[in-house]
Amino acid sequence: MADPLKERLEKLRKISESAKRRASLYSDVAKMDDTHTARSLGALQKAPAPGKKLQKIGFLMLWIPEPTGVTCAVGGPMIVAGRYLEKKYNSATIHDIGHQTKNTFSSISDFKTSVMNH
Description:
- By secondary structure, this protein is mostly helical.
- The chain is 82% helix and 0% strand.
- The longest helix has 29 residues.
């Protein structure tokens, strides 16, 4: 027969180990609250779009008439540069990635069901 006192001590030891692991996990999570981590996560939530900004500024310069024509000479290359940056740098956010992943999973699921049914 098992001793009830030993069973109780074993149960308390397991609870204590669980509490230590949980405290360690919370401590590690608190260490993650760093300015670099927060900046990185913020950049993922709202990705900068330098290409769109350059395009907007270029269009504004073209639309605002100016006697010397400097804005027209600068506006066109800014639009071209903005289009290049838009193609070169992806401005996707976590939200966009989540939607794309969801669409991919549904496409895979549709393909799988069509293959299994035929």
